[in-house]
Amino acid sequence: MVDPVNRLNTRAAGADAFGTRIDPTIPSPARIYDYLLGGKDHFAADREAAEHLVRLSPGTREGVRAHRAFLGRAVRHLADDAEMTQFLDIGTGIPTQGNTHEIAQRVNPAARVAYVDNDPIVLAHGRALLASSEEGMTTVIEADLRDPDRILSHPEVTGVIDFTRPVALVLVGVLHFITDEENPYELVERYKAAVPSGSRILLSHITLDFAPQVREKEFTKPYEKGSAPMVPRSHAQVEKFFQGWTMVPPGLVEVVTWRPDMDEYQEPIPGGGHAWAYGGLAVKP
Fold first, then answer.
1. Interaxial angle between packed helices 60-80 and 100-107, expressed in degrees from 0 to 180 and rounded to the nearest 10
2. Between residues 92 and 199, the one the model is more confident about
3. What is the pTM of this model?
């Protein structure tokens, strides 16, 4: 079996090379998110884009934290109640507190997690992601959601994930960066088809359903010159990603109302605002 820890440590040691592929003048979704979460891995262009969102909605930072808390609750449910031991997290973003492997391995130290992101900075932080439990395994690769063949056959992924056994597909906060022209539903179906019965899909997606007063063009403007445009979608459009699988209660709902746990998220969104995101979980029959 591939030793993903040794392999990634070797690649991460050359992290300086990634700097040549990072354009600090182009906003990155991963770095914008990092800034809103209070992280340190962002540039002026990312901060400017994030502050535009804050001006549109003063509750943006709290909404982002609520979105992150949703990930934590859902992964804990998957590792505990659903007894999932394998997680393929695509579009993971820059490492911060409450990563998928930390939550899953807290419940089950033997849990295995493969991270995927197309931002070089994420791979440059690979060593932080690899602070795995002794029993479990964790790896990270640089790849794009739009290339399922590469991801599903990558030796570091297959060295951690056994696709003959149930897998939790984690697509949190990433699909709204796939345009309609890039066939997001077909892409998701490729991943769904690659995993066996009993697998789960955990998904969240930005929406403007809770902000009818905001024009979509105004909301998505910060991402127009970025590395990926943003495409908010309606409840019906997001629900389509789960087609053919059985939704887990409470279904597709705003992330703050998906099995709320006040220990995870206690700050109210200012002005009674919303997280502007749907979240849901489904199981493959």
1. 30
2. 199
3. 0.83
